[in-house]
Amino acid sequence: MDSSGAAPHVAGTEAVGRGAAGPETTGPETTGPGTTGPGTTGPEAAEPAATERIEETLLGGARRYTRVQVSEAADVDRDRAHQLWMAMGFAEVRDDEVVFTDGDVDALRTWNDLVASGATPLEDEVPHARVMGQTLSRLAEWQAREVMARADTLGRNTGAAGRAAGAADMATTLLPVIERLQSYVWRRHLAAAADRILLAPPGDLAAAAVTVGFADIVGYTRVARHSDIEDLAALLETFEEDTSEAVVSNRGQVVKMVGDEVLFVTDRPADAAEIALRLTGPGRDSRGLPALRVGMATGRVLTRFGDVYGPVVNLAARLTSLARPGTALVDAELAGALRADGRYRLQRRRPAAVRGYHHLRSWALRPRE
How far apart are the first and last CA of the chain? Predict the structure, then answer.
């Protein structure tokens, strides 16, 4: 879009007009957005109209372009544009489908400018798009369900048309608010990450010595099999809140939640120990918290797109599988660091054979009394 607000001219868009069934497009006569046939009005028309309003609010305008046209408008090679689209996690689009908006043209130009400026190497473009897509798709899925659930609560007994209209109203009202809050949270996390990363030597940005920990719910498979959806949702919410608070209050970082398991890292071994002891301490059942088991290991890991990889991660996972309910196991490296700290007791366990390790040594972690 240029400074006047006009859409970029693309050869062939005159026939497309404002959308696949917009006023300049030839085809069956309609009476406006959301109609289901000539002269259709009432609830049958209202629901598609509300859906269209939601979409235009979120996308910043109507669908106007095919993928060929959007590539030409942004002056980006078609194959490269297609790669970016797929990397962000969006469905395949036929060459003749009118699905793209002025916002898509602007985004594609921005990607191109980012690479042209040298800020992002061309070879990193697709991996970066993939990480952004995977991260934001989960956030968007959750937000859409939350908005719809709230619209259902506020618009009970209004029928399908009222439900859709309520969701459209909420999307219009909440979008700018959510965007501001997301930007705030993202900038705060970016500042925190910058503080951590600036302390690392220049050659160690992709690899660092950290303590990696896993904590998972004891007996989750059995519980999930015998629980209804509402009870399972409540269990996972309690687990996520409990583990997140334990990690961040002890200067750790939650890498990701995977079902009944949380993966976290810390820069200092003692911080990891405090997290583990909090998550496996006595009295959890009386506070309505699920029993957990924890496994942790210390060493160098590869950090890539916000995740961690390497033998240390695998070792921490294997230790978690060996841990008894309500206990934390650590590897030899972490045991040595904590023993030197003096605040913890470390009880050596009998070596065990697990996948990838024939003679895995471990130590049970307990507070010094």
Answer: 67
Q: Where are the domains of the chain?
A: 13-197, 203-367
DSSP per-residue codes, 137-184: HHHHHHHHHHHHHHHHHHTTTSHHHHHHHHHHHHHHHHHHHHHHHHHH
Q: State the CB neighbour count (10 A cutoff) for residue 329.
A: 29
CB 16 within 8 A of CB 69: yes
Task: Please report, to the nearest 10 degrees, the dihedral formed by the alpha carbons of residues 127, 129, 135, 136 taken in order.
Answer: 180
What torsion, rounded to 10 degrees, do the Cα atoms 340, 344, 349, 352 define? -80
Rounded CA gap, 361 and 220, in Å? 26
Q: Which CATH superfamily is domain 203-367 in?
A: Nucleotide cyclase, GGDEF domain (3.30.70.1230)
Closest among 139, 44, 162 to 89, alpha carbons compared: 139
* Residue 242 DSSP symbol: H
77: closest CA among 42, 108, 120?
Answer: 108
Least confident span in 150-154, 160-164, 318-322: 160-164
What tokens does 284 get? 């959890």
For 141-167, b where at least 16 C-beta lie within 10 A, e where not — what string?
eeeeeebbeebeeebeeeeebbbbbbb
DSSP secondary structure, 288-354, as one string: TPPPEEEEEEEEEEEEETTEEESHHHHHHHHHHHHPPTT-EEE-HHHHHHHHHHSSEEEEEPPPEEE
Question: Which of 247, 268, 251, 256 lies closest to 303 in space, CA to CA?
Answer: 256
Q: Please say if the pLDDT value at position 204 is more than 50.
A: yes
| pLDDT tens, residue by residue, 285-319 | 888 899 999 999 999 999 988 899 999 999 999 99
Could you read off the pLDDT of 165-177 as tens digits, one per residue? 788 888 888 888 9
How far is it, in rounded angstroms, from Cα 190 to Cα 200? 16
